[in-house]
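Q: Sequence in, structure out?
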Amino acid sequence: MCQYVRKKPQHYLTEYSKKDNGPVIKKIKYYEKKTYAYKDITGDYPKSRNKIVKLSLKPYRFDVYLDNGVYKFVTVKHLDVIKKENYYEVNSVCYEEAKRLKNISDQAKFIASFYNNDLIEINGALYRVIGVNNDPVNKIEVNMVDKRIGRLYKTIGGKTQSIKKYSTDILGNLYEAKSKQDPQMIIKG
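A: Exactly. Output:
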C-alpha cells in the first residue's frame, strides 16, 4: 500500500518588483565589523555549516547581590528565559555562568530582582529602573521618580553603599519590599 505525501507549496522571499514576481532570494548574508556581545545558537540548528548568533540581548531583569560588602548584579536576558508548558523558567546554566563571570560567590546575599519601572534606592536616592545599560561595566539606566530629566546612568560597584527595592500601594505610599532568600527562577505564565 502506497502513501502519498502532499507537500505544502513553498513561499519564498523575493526581491521587490511592481508585478510582484521578483527573483527568489536564496541566501542572505549579514556583515558586521565585530560582534562583542552575542549568544551562540548554532547548536539549535544541527545542519548549519556556519556559526549562528543572536545579537539582540535585551535584559529581562537584573538580580542584585551583596558579596563581601560589595554590591554586584547579574543580568537575566530574554534569551535566558525558557518557555515551558504553562510557565517560564530562567536557564540555570546561563545564570550560574553569568554569576561566575561577575565573580559572585556562593556565599553572596541576594538583595532583590529589579524589572523595568521598579523603584530602586541607591545610596539614599530613589530612582525608577529603566534597565541595564552596560552589563560588563555594571551600569544600569534609571530615571528620577518625580521629575522627567533625561536618563541617568548609575554604576553598581565598590562605591555603592546601599541598595533597596521599594514598592507602592494603590494610594502611592512607599514601602520597602521584602526580599526573598533566592531569586525567582520559575515564572508563572
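The two ends are 46 Å apart (CA to CA).
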